[in-house]
């Protein structure tokens, strides 16, 4: 409606007494205009006097007392119909009308139309009375496409300078579009520093230009010849996948955590080797991530790992993951690494241009070996050999597969008894990398399939061996050590609260404390807790006669 009828009225053979003009027929009013917007402004004067107006279009007898209703009617009923003629605008007296509607009318008909036309870049000349109201469809599509390209350019600028306030961002975008003629994100690579020097600080200018040039290089590398041919043959081209990430991690070599920007309470805590408060630690993560994003908009997990390691090495007493006994948990920096990466994902969640996207490229290989299956990243926390990358010396994927089949044949003939053979132990050690590939395969295999491919993993011996190789932890000895540690604490707790327990608990506890329990604290603590919770011994333990067990051992030895 606002593009068709805002400014001019197309004349038709049936005209009013003033020729091609719209005339107000109110008594004593001789106002004439060829612009519907001018006529509507004039009608506001009559609305203030409590009068109602009729629609100026042919064959329309609607009357209105409210300006917003009249504006809505014109935009809906006469949007793509024959242009209105110079029909008389009859004005009659009404009982009353709210004078505040006049402002709504002016805003709805003039202000909104102006905003829409300005936003889409369509220039409409109020003085061109003889111009046709027919809007060329191709011009409209091109203008709409230009509008979306300019919006993408605005998003690209915001991604390069996320700290830029909205008012400054609008100023920069307006300057680039109006004065430099930027029509889309692809034009941003041609901007020079002197073009935006008066709008931004020197550092902001350099960051902006660096991001634009880097994106253009990445886009030229990732775009295929077919995509370039299609883009060159089309009238309006849209950028394909935008990649805004770090080309490399060279910035990590010179990166320094801005400790001077941290809170004084955190600095005092780390200087004293104490654990900082949770709020101070979150603030440290926020400041560190902001500093990292000055070099890379979306640091990878590998980058976060390097930063977390550096922080742990400098202040292990304040940030190292450890238990109350001082034992390091996992790698020691897992919680800090997760905080850094979570903060980065939170900042970039609404900015698609800052997200890291890596194209999947298949590299041709001249090697006749079968490519190894892809491994699914699931959870490698606490592992030291989650997925080895290099085969054992002198081994290939084919040779490892042959060794796996050999073990399947041995198992089919001898069963789990063959687990004691030295040859099986040797084969299981060499084929560890193949075992991890099959376990980590994407899509993952079921446990039944794994046991069919690697039958000796069903044995307790090789299952523990696989776990030890994977984590570097001797499970059986570590379990006994941890049971003893926890057992000592539990026994000490029961001893300090001795008067609170029942007779049964006191009896078991007294016997445990009086007995030489070297290496058996865990077992003693379990017996005390079973007495406290009234759990029968045979519910957790298999009871056996000690003399019969000794006889069984002697027989087996013989």
CA-atom Rg in angstroms:
40 Å
Strand content: under 5%
Describe the global form. elongated
Helix content range: 40-55%
Q: Distance between termini?
A: 104 Å
Please trace the helix and strand order, writing H or E for each element: HEEHEEHEHHHHHHHHHHHHHHHHHHHH
Largest sheet, spatial ordering of strands = 4-3-5
Largest sheet: 3 strands, antiparallel
> What number of structural domains do the residues give?
5
Mean pLDDT: 73
Count the DSSP helices: 23
Low-pLDDT parts are 5-19, 80-135, 218-245, 356-370, 554-558
Q: Say how many strands there are.
A: 5
State the secondary-structure class: mainly alpha
Give the topology, please.
Blueprint: H1 2-5, E1 22-23, E2 32-33, H2 36-48, E3 51-54, E4 63-64, H3 67-77, E5 91-93, H4 101-119, H5 137-160, H6 166-178, H7 193-196, H8 202-222, H9 225-233, H10 264-271, H11 278-293, H12 301-314, H13 316-319, H14 334-348, H15 397-414, H16 422-430, H17 432-439, H18 447-453, H19 460-471, H20 475-496, H21 503-514, H22 521-532, H23 546-557
Antiparallel strand pairs: 1-2, 3-4, 3-5
Helix pairs in contact: 2-4, 3-4, 5-6, 11-14, 12-14, 15-16, 20-22, 21-22
